[in-house]
Amino acid sequence: MMRTTIWAVIGWIVLVNCFLLVIANAPPPETDDPNDPRNRWKTYVDFSGVDVSGDPAEAARKTVDFYNSDLMGRIEKLYEKTTTTECRALIGKHFGYYLKAFANEKPLPFTDKTFKSTCDQEDEYDPDNLPPGVHMGMVQNRTYRPPRNETEYLEPSEIVFCYGILAHDSPSATIRLIEALDEPTTQFIVHVDAKYEETHQALKEYASQRSRVAVLDYPNRVRVNWGGFSMVNATLQMMYHADQIEFTHFVHMAATAYPIASNRRIRNTLADYPADANFMHIVLKPTSPALPIWNYYVECDDRLHRIFELAPLRKQVHGVDIFTSSQWFIISKEYVNFLAHPEPGSFLQDYMDYMKHAVVADEHFFGTVLRNTQFCKKHHNWNFLHLQFDQWENERELKMRDERKCIMPDPNHCGRSPTTMEMDYLDILELSGDLFARKFDDKVDTKIKDVIDRIRDKEEKELIKFNITKPQAPPLHNPLVLDGHGVLFVAKETIRSENPLCMGLGEERNKVRLVPCFYEDVPPTLASNWETGAVILDETIPHNRWEIGPCSSDGDLKKEYSGDVQVIPGLYNPTGPRCNLKMMDGLRVGRCLDGESFDPQPGGPVHVFPCHNRWHQYLSFGNGTHAPAGALHTNVPEHTRKRIAETGREQEAYMCLGLEGRGEDEEDWLGKRKEMMEKMKQRELEQMEQYSEDSEDEEGSLAQQEEDGEEDATTDTNAEKKEEGPLDIWHWEYEQLHAIKCSNTEAVIEWVIVPFIEEDSSTTEYEDEDADENASADSGDEDGSEDMEWPDETQDSDVDTKTDDKEEEEEL
């Protein structure tokens, strides 16, 4: 009995203590205090002054009156941006959908809507759970080219083009585009933004004398607005007209585009694919927009008016995913017919109703329809269009921003436009291998189209002369191919040292660094003039071997006996050919040296990334005039320099590979570069922790050394330099190279190139180890996609095109 009593007392003591502990740790009662951390997710409401006693109807009226001021203020702001009563009525109606849904406890627009995909794609992958041996680059690079006995292929001469051209101003540019592409069977349909009547009249007069040129009239003309569904509608209007004429391929393009290949090469290229192929560039990882930036819009009075949040479509919830794509494409007559005739209740019609209220509909409509219909299997994931994007609109000075491109709730969340092509882009257009490019502006550069026409005419004559009917890009120009086994880039001032330094990657990751050229026991065995000869793979440290090329054909490069490179200027480019530099070894094999960082300021840390035909992936050799002899440099486009000049800053035309902190301090314009580098550092360390778990033998690697404290090396070096004068180059051993101003000559590295020769026994252990992993080489930082990028709030992707009411391609 005593034992039972003791245990009962102990039990009560435990229960009391537990109760007291719960009371002590219980959260304080809820309050409306906006400073209470628990209320951060709430909108502050002080309801204490509202008397809701007595009759429920009267209390309800007082409650509604209390909230009416906020509601009226919100609607008033919407109406302030209207010009017509019709637009206000439309906004009021759609605003009411949300109020009614809340009041009647009904779902908000599209939250419970389901869509039925008719795509039975056999090789559909989950980008977040790819099977072994498959990486996103492989998924992104999908093609459609079945055997010729399984589907119809056309001869080049059998292809009949229908070009659908979106125009707004400059009728002369549209006319020149038509005449550049014109052939005896080619059809043209032109949609002129309904806000540009003079352009419409000029093109109508031009078309009146040509039976194969149609310029749309009302009711098929649309007022096109930035970010609105009106862009999709304008394209569909051209498709309605195209469905009445004969053609095999519909090419959708802007009047600001231009062909960079001859008409015969365009035919030859497309004839290498089935007649029912659809050439559309789509990011094959579904878009996952967050609610703060994915909103319901009403389009009227030549702008978009934001109502409230729009439910993002998710396959698990709504039956389909949204895909980001370029609105410029080449598609089959079959797909045009499908788009021109949406059936009630079909996915096409339902999705059209949804996208009428989404922002940047042109980027999300055509690709998503393709991926969710029976045409998904007939998709080649490229559109043969070259473009280069410029800065985000929110990176411009506030007074210089185009407010039409900043329509999100956050005014610092904006779109961006493509770069205007000028003469300094000619080399890149040549090397792109594409058929078309945009954008061109005759007011900015009147010469580049003339030069392109001469190149196209020469190519056309050669293809006709030799009766070439197969796809054939311009021959690659590799003036420094040497024996084809790659080269070392050796820092010239280290050649005679006991430890020559080269440009390489170190042991891992994408950073391009200054690293030892050879294993420790090799330098003592080198001849006194070893740089004039060649090296073998067994002697050099992994990831130091580079391939030069392809290079542009304007000008020439010659390797001198000393290893220096002689630059012969071109007809249009005074700095001579521009070349890719590609890594030839290890997991990053085939990646291009990229001389651009990730902020609006040109230059910055240098990496290797998948090759994307961008200006910062093409390097020139210094000629002693524009850049120090022996330097490697990028050419900053004139368009970019003009944009920077708008901010009151001056940007040099050439950025050289060099050492941060050795010469003059490089200016950090926006104070973002340091922050960016710290984030990259943290990301790399996190990756290295994961990497080390999988590879214990890598604990002593370069990245681990950085984790142990090399982060402050640059700061220490700078301080020591200021006290003792310039430091020698070995203080930057294993440090990342930077693209810096070429005028900062003390920091610029001058290089000599030394070719590799191949011996029968030159296969090395590290090559064998890497061979099995090359399949996943590009599964890290890049997903293989191009051209469009979403800000961090949505997803990381290279691809995002946007078009305003001037048909300018944008990114959001």
Topology record:
Elements: H1 2-25, H2 56-80, H3 85-103, H4 136-140, E1 161-167, H5 171-181, E2 187-192, H6 197-207, E3 213-215, H7 230-242, E4 249-254, E5 257-259, H8 263-270, E6 278-279, E7 295-300, E8 303-309, H9 315-318, E9 330-332, H10 333-340, H11 347-355, H12 361-364, H13 366-371, E10 379-380, E11 385-386, E12 389-392, E13 416-418, H14 426-432, E14 436-438, H15 448-465, E15 487-491, E16 501-504, E17 513-516, E18 535-536, E19 546-551, E20 556-559, E21 565-568, E22 579-583, E23 592-594, E24 604-605, E25 607-609, E26 620-621, E27 632-635, H16 638-645, E28 654-658, H17 673-694, H18 702-707, H19 713-724, E29 738-741, E30 751-757, H20 765-771, E31 802-803, E32 809-810
Parallel strand pairs: 1-2, 1-4, 2-3, 6-10, 11-14, 18-30
Antiparallel strand pairs: 4-9, 5-14, 7-8, 12-13, 15-30, 16-17, 19-22, 20-21, 23-25, 24-29, 26-27, 27-28, 28-29, 31-32
Lateral strand order in the biggest sheet: 3-2-1-4-9
Largest sheet report: 5 strands, mixed
Strand content: 15-25%
End-to-end Cα distance: 78 Å
Oligomer: single chain
Class computed from helices, strands and strand pairing: alpha+beta
Helix content: 25-40%
> Please, how many helices?
20
Q: What spatial form do the alpha-carbon principal axes imply?
A: globular
Low-confidence stretches: 18-24, 695-723, 761-812
Which value, in Å, is the CA radius of gyration?
31 Å
- β-strand number: 32
Overall pLDDT level: 82
Structural notes for this entry:
- The protein has 812 residues and is of the alpha+beta class.
- Helix content is 28%, strand content 15%.
- It has 20 helices and 32 strands.
- A 5-stranded mixed sheet has the order 3-2-1-4-9, with helices on both faces.
- The longest helix is centred in the N-terminal third of the chain and has 25 residues.
- It starts with a helix and ends with a strand.
- The relative contact order is 0.11.
